[in-house]
């Protein structure tokens, strides 16, 4: 298929995409105007036959239908919602679920090449590294002023977004670093290789300091999977595999039981799970999640098969918190803290099935293609959605929509381009 996109439009598209992923770790407020500029540029190209032709290519067309169906089911949920202002706000925050696959899957592979996608991943990686350094430096200034060691942990360290989402970004960045160092067919040049090696300890230390329980658990899982993959990448090494598994099992025990720091949230969570007397009106976040999960599950079952509607989840949860006298949780007005339950309550069985398909089908495709990047990205978002309502936060929506579209598109590029 001939390439008919003008040089100006293709360059603008690529630069805006770089800007989107580069600013994402620092702010969510630039994504919407950047996406609008990309849509204006997309329309101004006016090459609809080429866009349709690109969209029809496998596997893009199947994933495009799958991805936008998640957005469309939220539109259908407007039919029976009561809180329309909240519903339209939710649709606006999820707009990249529609825009990202539309913009990316209609691009010709000669415009968005493997090399360019790798550059996009590297920009995100180094932006996350810069975020980690910036926050640690700012925490150091605060520590110099007040002497509080807590400046280096959790909410007080994460200045630009919630630690759970920041940890999620860092975990993917670690994956990118390891991929470009050890797996990518095109080996990095010397200067890039040095920067990649420098980024790894920075990112890992920052994940530890953030003390997000979901971030620590996800990092442990991807470290385990990537470690096994690297050990057995060229040939099976049974002895090294056993030693690595034993080491992996030992480190969490040391961290949870023996390390004492001002904010050891993982240790606190384990302690609370072992002492469940605080379950009735908990103030620790893990116990809060357990209570909220039960409340959300019961409400979702009561509202089968269609759910309560796109905009009504928060309202029905708050009413239930009042009815059950969950005063501390009511004060914080917590969402479901589980995207599967959140979608189940909002959109019923159909919404839950589409969300699960959003995870399972790309996961199977990653296994089929033996692609470690897509595989680990799906692991990261699937695990985070167990403990966070990712699609209810702009950072979660933008992160998932952009990178799942890029990872899928990358695998659709002809093989000769991948190794070029």
Number of helices: 20
Overall mean pLDDT stands at 87
Q: Termini distance?
A: 20 Å
Low-confidence stretches: none
Q: Kindly give the count of domains.
A: 1
Q: Could you tell me the strand content as a percent range?
A: under 5%
What would you note in describing this structure?
- By secondary structure, the protein is an all-alpha fold.
- It has one domain.
- Helices cover 74% and strands 0% of the residues.
- The chain is built from 20 helices and no strands.
- The chain has helices spanning 7-23, 31-45, 48-55, 60-76, 84-93, 96-105, 114-146, 154-157, 163-182, 190-210, 213-231, 238-258, 265-274, 285-302, 313-323, 327-332, 339-369, 372-387, 394-412, 415-418.
- Helix 1 (7-23) packs parallel to helix 7 (114-146) and helix 7 (114-146) crosses helix 9.
- The two termini are 20 Å apart.
- The mean pLDDT is 87.
Overview features:
single chain, 420 residues, mainly alpha
What is the topology?
Elements: H1 7-23, H2 31-45, H3 48-55, H4 60-76, H5 84-93, H6 96-105, H7 114-146, H8 154-157, H9 163-182, H10 190-210, H11 213-231, H12 238-258, H13 265-274, H14 285-302, H15 313-323, H16 327-332, H17 339-369, H18 372-387, H19 394-412, H20 415-418
């Amino acid at each position: 298929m001939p390439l008919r996109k003008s040089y100006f439009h293709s360059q603008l598209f690529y630069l805006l995409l770089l800007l989107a992923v580069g600013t994402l770790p620092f702010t969510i407020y630039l994504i919407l105007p950047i996406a609008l500029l990309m849509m204006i540029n997309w329309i101004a190209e006016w090459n609809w036959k080429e866009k349709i032709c690109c969209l029809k290519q496998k596997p893009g067309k199947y994933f495009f239908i799958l991805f936008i169906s998640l957005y469309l089911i939220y539109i259908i949920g407007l039919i029976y919602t009561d809180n329309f202002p909240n519903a339209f706000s939710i649709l606006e925050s999820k707009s990249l679920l529609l825009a990202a696959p539309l913009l990316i899957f209609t691009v010709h592979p000669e415009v968005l090449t493997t090399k360019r996608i790798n550059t996009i991943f590297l920009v995100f990686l180094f932006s996350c590294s810069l975020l980690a350094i910036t926050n640690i430096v700012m925490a150091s200034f605060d520590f110099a002023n007040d002497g509080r060691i807590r400046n280096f942990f959790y909410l007080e360290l994460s200045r630009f977004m919630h630690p759970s989402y920041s940890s999620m970004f860092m975990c993917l960045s670690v994956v990118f670093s390891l991929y470009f160092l050890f797996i990518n067919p095109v080996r990095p040049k010397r200067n890039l290789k040095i920067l990649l090696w420098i980024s790894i300890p920075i990112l890992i230390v920052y994940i530890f300091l953030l003390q997000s329980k979901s971030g620590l658990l996800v990092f442990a899982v991807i470290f385990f999977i990537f470690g096994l993959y690297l050990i057995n990448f060229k040939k099976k090494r049974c002895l090294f595999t056993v030693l690595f598994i034993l080491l992996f099992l030992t480190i969490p025990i040391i961290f949870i039981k023996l390390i004492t720091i001002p904010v050891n949230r993982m240790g606190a969570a384990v302690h609370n799970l072992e002492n469940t007397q605080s379950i009735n009106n908990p103030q620790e976040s893990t116990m809060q999640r357990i209570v909220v999960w039960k409340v959300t599950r019961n409400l979702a079952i009561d509202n089968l098969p269609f759910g309560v509607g796109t905009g009504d989840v928060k309202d029905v949860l708050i009413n239930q918190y009042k009815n059950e006298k969950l005063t501390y949780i009511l004060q914080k007005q917590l969402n479901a803290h589980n995207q599967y339950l959140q979608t189940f309550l909002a959109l019923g069985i159909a919404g839950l099935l589409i969300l699960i398909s959003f995870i399972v089908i790309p996961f199977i495709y990653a296994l089929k293609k033996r692609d470690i990047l897509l595989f680990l990205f799906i692991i990261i978002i699937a695990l985070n959605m167990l403990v966070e309502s990712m699609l209810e936060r702009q950072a979660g929506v933008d992160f998932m929509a952009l990178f799942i579209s890029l990872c899928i598109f990358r695998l659709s590029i002809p093989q000769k381009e991948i190794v070029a």
